[in-house]
Amino acid sequence: MLVKGFAQGSSMFDVTPVENMFITEYMMRAPGDYVKVYLFLLNICYYPHDDYDVKDVAKELGMEEDEVKKALIYWAQLSLIEIESRRPFIVSVKNIKYMLQNEKPIKNNIHDKQELIMQIQQSFGGRRLLNTFETQKVLGWAETYKWSSGMIALVVAWCVDKKGTRVSLSYIDKVIATMVEKEIDSYEEAENYLIISSAWESGATKLLKSWNENRVATKDEIVMYKKWTEKYEMTEAVINQARKQMVGVSGNKFKYLDSVLTDWSNKGIRTYEDMQEHLSMAERLREITKILYNTSKYDEKTENEYKAMRKLGFSHKVLTRVAIALKQEGVEKIEDMHKVVAKWAGTGVADDTMMMDKLDAMAQIALAANAMVAAFGETRNAAPNEKRAYMRWIEAGYSHDDIINAAAQAMNADKKQPYMNAILKGGQKNSGKISSINQGDIAHGSSSFEDIFESMEEMS
């Protein structure tokens, strides 16, 4: 190259020409810092002694890089500069007079972009037609940023979804300008950006904030949240209630919550009322398993067995009483409890009142059998086999006093029941009334124990 340009330092004593048309037509309405950027670009054009990038321009002008980018986009929208590349930002400055005299107006491209115009009008619900100014604005986006019709239509549809069909084009213009600043230049990047932008106000990000995670939800997390609300049709109240069940959970909370909600969905939980019923059911199941298994954990099989017993017409309160009574008789599995309850239901025990009568009869027999054990001189409750023996003696016609007297005589015997049996058979039956024990209850209750023993024999 014969001439490289002005000698170093010469530009300090020279001038940078600015067209009067810029001053009268553009500068008056432009933000002050944007004017600074434009004038600096002119200076670089006339005196390109340094290889400036956006960062350098920002440093020279005392501005933020994002503000410099906004200024470049602003002048590009007015066609005073042309953005040739955004990674990195490369622009060329146009001569205003030449541009006005020689460049074809954007409106000449309307036929090429007719499909885009129709697509955007469709985003507005088909009821809003773009006026001339709005049409030129849309064509300007395509011309200035070199964006595809698909990208522009995507952004417009997102803005309409966010603000409604009456959204202003100035709002859409700001969204597009922001995306250009962030160097978004492909459909996939635009889609990801819009998804993440929506996440700031989405339920997914609200969930993260509830866990003290101050960040935007990821695309995968947003997809999960969308699945819960759209596919599972769950309300926000249901999702929040599931979140409250996660105390002490560490690791990927979204995935854990997804597993909980997927399980709830499989169980038909959709509304707050569904969820309340489910949680009540869970609490009831924990109460039953605590009685039978000494643990609050339960599985699907336990839940199904419990629901089957409820369908027989018995309340949770009564089933709890049944669990306690049967546990004392050695029944320790919910499926075995179900068999006993089903057998009772088959013999006519049809509601809570009848079930409570049966349990009261069992309690009477247990009380009487405990008195027999006390007559042995032992401080414990009667074992199931002892209750069964007591019941059989009652059925054979022996009174409570007969049995207690025989028990007292068998106190020192190694095998108490055979010894008592021999005493009772060899003695005379006492026709006296039983003190503190109702003979009618015991007689009625004998069938209760008979049902239990028969059921337990079937299980063994």
Write the layout of secondary structure elements.
Blueprint (H helix, E strand, L loop, with lengths): L19 H6 L6 H15 L7 H8 L3 H13 L3 E6 L2 E5 L2 H7 L11 H10 L8 H14 L3 H15 L5 H13 L5 H13 L3 H8 L8 H13 L4 H9 L8 H14 L5 H22 L6 H12 L4 H13 L5 H13 L5 H24 L8 H12 L4 H10 L6 H11 L12 H21 L1
Antiparallel strand pairs: 1-2
Helix pairs in contact: 2-4, 3-4, 4-9, 6-8, 7-9, 8-9, 8-10, 12-14, 15-17, 16-18, 17-19, 18-23, 19-20, 19-21, 19-23, 20-23, 21-22
Features:
disordered C terminus, 23 helices, 460 residues, disordered N terminus, mainly alpha, single chain, two-stranded antiparallel sheet, rod-shaped, 2 strands
**Level of helix content?**
55-70%
Overall number of strands: 2
Specify the overall morphology: rod-shaped
> Cα-atom Rg, whole angstroms?
43 Å
Total helical segments = 23
Question: Strand portion, in percent?
Answer: under 5%
Largest sheet: 2 strands, antiparallel
> In sequence order, what are the helices and strands, one letter per element?
HHHHEEHHHHHHHHHHHHHHHHHHH
General description of the model:
It is a single chain. This protein is mainly alpha-helical. Helix content is 64%, strand content 2%. The chain has a two-stranded antiparallel ribbon with strand order 1-2. It is rod-shaped, with a radius of gyration of 43 Å. The termini are far apart.
What can be said about this structure in brief?
This protein is an all-alpha fold and 460 residues long. Helix content is 64%, strand content 2%. The protein is built from 23 helices and 2 strands.
